[in-house]
Amino acid sequence: MTEQTDPTMTEAEAAEFHGAMEKAQVYALWEHWDGRYATEPEPPCLWPWESIQPLMQTAVGAMTMDQAAERRVLCLANRDLDENAFAISPHFAINVQILAPGEHAAPHRHSIHALRFVLAGGSTTIVDGKRCPMDPGDMILTPAWTWHEHLHDGTEPAIWVDVLDSPIHRHFDTVGWESGPTNEIPDRIPDTAFHTPGLTPAGETGNDHHSSMFHYPWVSAVEALVAVPAAVDGSRLLRYTDPVTGAAVMNRLDCYLLGLDKGVETIRRRSTANVACVVADGAGTTRVGEETVTWQKNDIFTLPHGNWISHCATSEAKLFMVSDREILRRLDLLHDEVEG
Description:
By secondary structure, this protein is an alpha+beta fold. Helix content is 15%, strand content 32%. It has two domains: 1-38, no CATH class; 46-196 and 209-338, Jelly Rolls. The chain is globular, with a radius of gyration of 23 Å.
């Protein structure tokens, strides 16, 4: 911004004033603020699977797991954010990871909440001793400070989407990491104990940080989605929750599954929350502000906060959605609007 100074100051006095401010490590608000706090919503970003998949296949042939530091990962980059953010929204990052048959990503843990949404299956993730199959559409939680590792005894490469709340930790400088071998793994109740709706182990009270269940099978999610009553626009929305508390699966990542009927446009909505979508099935378009995103299976795209948003599927479709809603809700900053 062009420097603005008191018109009574001479050029020399203004230079002296700015030099004094620099030395004092302060700046003049009136030179940097135009009297408005609101900003225009960011545009959406789209990562077509047809562009990502060849890169993943090349990565498998180009380097071993040792060469890739046991993480053969492509990080999705949002050009509208800081180039060093390694994120697609201000509060979460998304990566795509591939594991070849016979490979093993060694156990580790970190302060970052993470989840995996599986695109191509055949592998297994072990979380604090729980073996979690990774079939297409499954969601696996690896909450903060849980030991986890990935192994693959199938015949085809396994590919999944990683979602992490790493930007929050970078902001607060709270990133922590510990490599295996695992130690002091807590006794965990098997996920199967939570699979019957309305029934949970007696005495299990859950916690405020993450779900007691780590593996959310796609088959179960689809069955539940079909049972959800359709909204007036034909859409069905399912929330992934902690079976004990009913809360979000993790306290900084909130996940949903949206079902869309063919050819029906959803009611426009907007929110203070940021959302990323993974196309689990089908194809269609999404209107984000003044822009239109055209998507198909396995594509990934963003719904930045503040935009009016509507979806229209060209075939029956399902979108896996992850957001920062729970963070905003806890800070009393979540606000949703529906058109009309």
